[in-house]
Amino acid sequence: xxxxxxxxxxxxxxxxxxxxxxxxxxxxxxxxxxxxxxxxxxxxxxxxxxxxxxxxxxxxxxxxxxxxxxxxxxxxxxxxxxxxxxxxxxxxxxxxxxxxxxxxxxxxxxxxxxxxx
Amino acid sequence: xxxxxxxxxxxxxxxxxxxxxxxxxxxxxxxxxxxxxxxxxxxxxxxxxxxxxxxxxxxxxxxxxxxxxxxxxxxxxxxxxxxxxxxxxxxxxxxxxxxxxxxxxxxxxxxxxx
Lengths: 117, 114
Hints:
Shape of chain B: globular
Radius of gyration of chain B: 14 Å
Largest sheet of chain A: 7 strands, mixed
Order of helices and strands of chain B: EEEEEEEEEEE
Low-confidence stretches of chain A: none
Distance between the termini of chain B: 41 Å
Low-confidence stretches of chain B: none
Order of helices and strands of chain A: EEEEEEEEEEE
Oligomer: heterodimer
Mean pLDDT of chain B: 95
Strand content of chain B: over 45%
Largest interface: A-B, 21 and 24 residues
Structural class of chain A: mainly beta
Number of helices of chain B: 0
Shape of chain A: globular
């Protein structure tokens, strides 16, 4: 099956700094990728839809100036958490669908655990 | 937008017995309903999915049923084993190009008692 990777797998940063998380589709191209956030013992909440070559679409309540998304190529989307605060500490997961197939299955990255101190 | 509700939030089942988790959705345009298993600190793993043109789908010990009229779908796990212990999420999407975003249920923590 299709493989999605994320980097880093975990990161600790100080309050006020920025952190970049990468999401890559390793063996397929994806014009659309999705970014989710998952707090401990909670569900996955969609933050934004990343569109290759155009602006991301953010879900209601997600600050686009705080969570910068860049989908510069068909295999890479990045999420930058700017001016991070402790409340941004969470598990960030990306996903993508293999658009070569007719299936609707989405492939998830392994996630990035962000801790802001 | 879509709203997906999931019950129960926790479920304990004796090993070998069956487990059933139920979800309801609000958007009648949703046509793709996957189920995920997530272990602590790991990515969600697709265990089974169903499209709206099908009422039931089975894969070994796992089955999913869909009632489009009532807008609910259920996960059935038979002959449960300790390795089935995990958090399970249902989700819904419109499935096709440009509409793939998933709305997740709140999750069910399943514990299999040996």
